[in-house]
Amino acid sequence: MALAVCGLILVLAHHLSRDIDYHALSRAVRETPRSFLWASLAATAVSYLALIGRDVAALRYVGVRAPVAVTLLASFCASALGNAVGFGALTGGAMRYRIYGAARITPEQVARLMAFITVGFAVGLAFVAAAGTVLAGHAVGRLLGLPALLARGGGLAVVLAVAGLLVLCARRRSPPGFGRWRLTLPDGRLALAQLVLTAIDVVAAGMALWVLLPGERIDFATFSAVFAVATALGVLSHVPGGIGVFEAVVVLALGRHAPPTHIAAALLTYRGLYFALPLLLATACLAGFELRRLARLPAGGGEALRDAGQLAPTFLSVITFAIGVMVLVSGATPALRTSIDVLQIALPLWAMETSNFVASLTGIVLLFVARGLFHRLDGAWWLAVIIAAGNLVLSLTKGLAIGESLVVGCLFLLLLATRGQFRRPISMLHQPFTLGWFVVTGVVLAATTWILFFAFRDVQYSHELWWQFEFDARAPRAFRATLGAAVLALGGALWQMLRPAAGRVAPPTAAELAQARHIVAEQTRGEAMLALMGDKSFLFSASGRSMLMYAKHGRSWVALYDPVGPRGEWPELIWQFVELADAHGGRVAFYEVRPDSLPFYLDAGLKVMKLGEEACIALADFTTEGSAGSAMRHILKRGEREGFELEILPPGTVDPVLDTLAAISDGWLAAHKTQEKAFSVAAFGRDFVAGQYVALLRQAGKPVAFVSAMTTDRRREATAALMRHTPDASRYAMEYIFIRLGLALKQAGFEVFSLGMAPLAGVEHTPLSSSWHRVANLLWQHGGRLYSFQGLRAFKGKFHPVWEPRYLAASGSGSLGPMLALTDVVALAGGRRGAGREIS
């Protein structure tokens, strides 16, 4: 699809550029009046201030507060990255997750905030386009080829629709419903504020381009409608930054009002001022926070600002990729004659030829280095620094490209300032590159080749051009540089395709299980004991103190829970696992991760979906006394009447009853016509159960049920594992066991007793929800025949737990990749008959 869109854009660009002269375009960009530039910069500043205001309004809508510095940083960085890269809801959302999350704002609140901003932007964009159409109906009608009355009528209809929405918000006593769905509308003042701020943003952004247009400009009301439509089409195209689509709409609409060459020059200047400059400033800001952190200076904004430098690799990867494109385009376009005349006096011909050729090769290398910077590789940082330092010289010796040299110098300084974020000692040569990365590189090369032929369209092609070496032979020099870059990219692609696979998933060895057992013993969370079932492989940290437990099904490489071990080693383990999956061409997923660890997965470029909520009993408050404990007291009394006798066996004392437990477990499996589960669900294994707390229930002297709880030597958090009973056990048996077991764990000094997750709980569906939320909510409402989702949550709710959200962090585009990973997780948990016992 990317290649097809690229082809369509290049065809359209070829058609629109027939009346554009490259040399005149270059001259028009250089001769843009300074007053125009300052006016455009002022309008850009107003636009970004409005974007910050939108975040403030969105925070009020969600009902949370954030420090002013955190709001400024989150909004500016997210907006700069979203504008430059596109996919604002994803890229900007990930930035906000990262910064607001550090300020203790929950993922659900950030998701609502992003939905509010996205809808507000859509409404505001439509309002500006409609208002411009109403004010300048004749001009807009001529541009669109529509009667003025029809254009004004359509614009007026949109304006009235927006006004009606504001009235609904002002009178929101009963929000509008869509079946069972309910949309929480903001109050009238907040909705009006968001509309005004979005309109200011769009109008100021349009003004930043309008002031750059040459000659007798069209009136701003008409232009605002054109700008809004071009922006909307650029967003809908999903092309990064709307590049090509936005420009095509503007040139088509304004081509009769100004020379196309001057319109194209204004668009190029606008891209630099409104998109590139804020991205550089955001990166410099993050680099400044990184320097303050290294110097141990107070950041003045809490944890969110202290750790803001950790976002720098994402921004630097985007800037490095953009500079790689810039270097490639520079090598494919002619240098100024005046610059060549100066170089002819100062340098030999071979130095200029070599500089242009080598610079283009480094441009290709920067495209791949960008991915290594995103992965925080030490080798990528060194390579980027060396290339940036080299290009400081090459940009001057190939054509006195002073502007290019300044931009590369900024990259060099930013890399030096953020050195501390690139500490992963992995060679760039061992970094796997996905097919998508090569497709993007191919798109860049295709666009560069088109620019090459556009710049030299007045040169008559002949085979002899390739062998002309003269100072004034600018076309041959550009041809050779572009060809060299293409050959280097093709060679890298072939090398990646032919390299052997890095390895396969293997069952854990006895030594690995022993090392895992040692790591688990040092943890506070009992769920870590699932590593000892033997059905998962391990990825250990370099220190040997941390690990990931994972399994593979289909193309999915799935890690269970967050890494186990010291938190400081988690980011590196997460990156290693992402790269392990990448090396095999698979998708990566982390199942049932906790909210406080989401920034690690967002930094790795993964998408997050809510899976459900885990029931965690705070044992300090767990009691059968008072009105809250009346239902539990009733269960305990009922158990006494039915002759319940409970025996609680700590780890190491379970061996004498293992045969009894095995008989109950086998009877439970047979009665439910099921088999032992695996991966994220505990299975019965004699050695595995022997290391747990076990509560064995006898009724009238007969063993009828048991519950096991996974614990570690730290004795802080216990996790329910196996819950089995015979067909004739009392229906009060399980509730009785959990109450008594919770009280026993409390007495033993434990702080938390986890009852496990209630799948799909808390995954709400609104008209703004993702496709996953819609599917999950449908299963929650109507999936009772498949699985008792609501019944499970109701049962666990009887013990008054605290409900904590759990997430899936996975790679892939949109919701499709994570949902495919989730189906593989279900398959992994399915297990096979007797799996746990065979493993033990």
- Structural class determined from secondary elements: alpha+beta
Question: Span between N and C termini?
Answer: 49 Å
Stretches where pLDDT is under 50 for at least 5 consecutive residues are 832-840
Q: Biggest β-sheet: count, sense, barrel?
A: 11 strands, mixed
Binned, the helix content reads 55-70%
Total tally of structural domains:
4
3D architecture notes:
The structure is a single chain. By secondary structure, the chain is an alpha+beta fold. It folds into four domains: 2-306, no CATH class; 310-498, no CATH class; 517-598, Aminopeptidase (3-Layer(aba) Sandwich), CATH 3.40.630; 615-839, Gcn5-related N-acetyltransferase (GNAT) (Aminopeptidase, 3-Layer(aba) Sandwich). It is built from 31 helices and 13 strands. The strands form two sheets. It has an eleven-stranded mixed β-sheet with strand order 3-4-5-6-13-7-12-11-10-9-8. A two-stranded antiparallel sheet has the order 1-2. Strand 11 (717-725), helix 27 (733-747) and strand 12 (752-759) form a beta-alpha-beta unit. Helix 16 (349-374) packs antiparallel against helix 17 (378-397). It is globular, with a radius of gyration of 31 Å. The relative contact order is 0.08. Residues 832-840 have low confidence and may be disordered.
Write the layout of secondary structure elements.
Elements: H1 2-16, H2 22-30, H3 34-62, H4 68-85, H5 88-102, H6 107-135, H7 137-144, H8 148-170, E1 177-178, E2 181-182, H9 188-210, H10 220-237, H11 245-254, H12 260-294, H13 303-306, H14 312-332, H15 337-346, H16 349-374, H17 378-397, H18 402-417, H19 435-455, H20 474-498, H21 510-521, E3 537-540, E4 547-553, E5 556-560, H22 570-583, E6 587-593, H23 598-603, E7 607-618, H24 630-641, E8 644-649, H25 658-672, H26 686-690, E9 693-699, E10 702-710, E11 717-725, H27 733-747, E12 752-759, H28 771-782, H29 789-797, E13 802-810, H30 816-830, H31 835-839
Parallel strand pairs: 5-6, 11-12
Antiparallel strand pairs: 1-2, 3-4, 4-5, 6-13, 7-12, 7-13, 8-9, 9-10, 10-11
